[in-house]
Design a protein that fits this description.
The structure holds 2 protein chains of 2 kinds. By secondary structure, chain A is an all-alpha fold. In chain A, 73% of the residues lie in helices and 0% in strands. By secondary structure, chain B is mainly α. The chains are: A mainly alpha, B mainly alpha. The interface between A and B is large, with 59 and 43 residues.
């Protein structure tokens, strides 16, 4: 192995370790939002980490490692959904439509915070990949500008969507609160 | 409770989910990448062996042929098979590399590029290279056979017509099927809000 490629490999390895360390938890939450089946969750998780590893050879620092990692993770997640087109025929909704869908009845023995998170997952998995990405990025603490950078949408479009997401999530949280 | 409080509670609950142990070490990922690359190389090697066998068969026919027309036809057929297979492998590799090279793009651009890649991949198969490479050269072989065996020309012509017709049907069926799958994917992308 030439010194340059060894250096390159060490750089990729360091970047990957940093990304996995910092955003591994967020990737796990993303995986659970894209796929409910534990077996397929493992596959998707592996695919995301593989794509991330392979992509890091091209990482040139023009965007942050966080933006890069989330772009790769969401793109792999969306491709995963497309590949399962024959297996899954459920209808997905936009943020605007999903507000009209009745919520599933909560299980009585669910803990408070657990119930909240469970409701979030049910909400997210009803969304189209584009809106799903927005909600997940919002929940991971991205502001409008950072979401626009990850998704490629205009800042004004993201701001409008975030407004809807906030309203929707707050309403769902209140519903969970009243169900306690 | 205000809306902001509700949101804060949701976000806190979301981020406080129990963490799973780290998914993969860098070493495991490198191993997995190597395994996938080896599998891809094995698949290509299997395809190359099948093509070499087919091409070899035509080369043997060219060596044993009764006349020059058959020899030329057999050599052209071997080249046609080789050319089409090489083209198919090259396109696949090029497109899968392109697909991998865009994984870090903003999602909207990524969906668009993926759609274009899918379209190119599906439309690439079964075009004029397939018609010219897989149908015309064997017809030259049949013509050579008819010259070598003038008494059986009618039978040879019938076999040639069946051969050409069958290949034309198969090639255009494959192409139509690929386009129909692309159209289905387009409808599916629309239903998933990706278009």
């Amino acid at each position: 192995m030439s010194p340059e490629s060894a250096e390159e490999l060490a750089r990729e390895r360091a970047l990957y370790d940093e990304a996995a360390e910092q955003f591994g938890g967020a990737i796990d939450r993303l995986v659970r939002s894209y796929e409910r089946d534990p077996e397929r969750q493992r596959d998707l998780r592996q695919e995301i980490h593989l794509a991330l590893w392979r992509s890091l050879a091209r990482f040139d620092g023009r965007c942050s490692l966080r933006t890069w990692t989330f772009r790769v993770a969401h793109n792999v997640g969306a491709t995963f959904i497309l590949r399962q087109r024959r297996a899954r025929t459920s209808t997905l909704f936009s943020l605007e439509e999903v507000d009209d869908i009745p919520e599933p009845h909560p299980a009585e023995d669910t803990l408070d915070r657990g119930l909240l998170v469970q409701r979030l997952y049910s909400l997210i998995e009803q969304l189209t990949p584009g809106d799903r990405e927005l909600v997940l990025l919002y929940l991971e603490g991205f502001d409008a500008a950072a979401i626009a950078e990850v998704t490629g949408r205009s800042a004004s479009n993201v701001a409008t969507k975030i407004h809807r997401i906030k309203r929707l999530i707050a309403r769902r949280a209140r519903a969970a609160e009243s169900a306690r | 409770m205000t809306e902001q409080n509700d949101l804060d509670e949701v976000i806190a609950a979301w981020r406080d989910q129990p963490a799973e142990p780290r998914a993969f070490s860098a070493l495991e990922i490198r191993r997995a990448v190597r395994r996938i690359e080896t599998e891809a190389r094995s698949a290509i090697a299997a395809l190359v062996i099948a093509v070499v066998f087919n091409v070899g068969m035509w080369v043997v026919l060219a060596a044993l042929a009764d006349n020059r027309l058959m020899r030329v036809g057999a050599v052209l057929t071997a080249l046609g098979y080789g050319w089409n297979a090489a083209l198919a492998i090259h396109r696949r590799r090029q497109l899968s590399a392109a697909c991998m090279a865009v994984s870090e793009l903003p999602s909207i651009e990524y969906y668009q590029i993926l759609r274009d890649i899918d379209r190119r991949l599906r439309l690439a198969g079964g075009g004029w290279p397939a018609y010219i490479g897989l149908i015309v050269p064997p017809l030259i072989v049949f013509a050579g056979a008819a010259v070598a065996e003038p008494a059986s020309w009618a039978t040879i012509a019938a076999v040639a017509v069946v051969y050409a017709g069958l290949h034309m049907v198969l090639i255009s069926w494959g192409r139509r099927n690929a386009i129909a799958t692309y159209d289905e994917m387009e409808r599916f992308r629309k239903s998933r809000g990706l278009l």
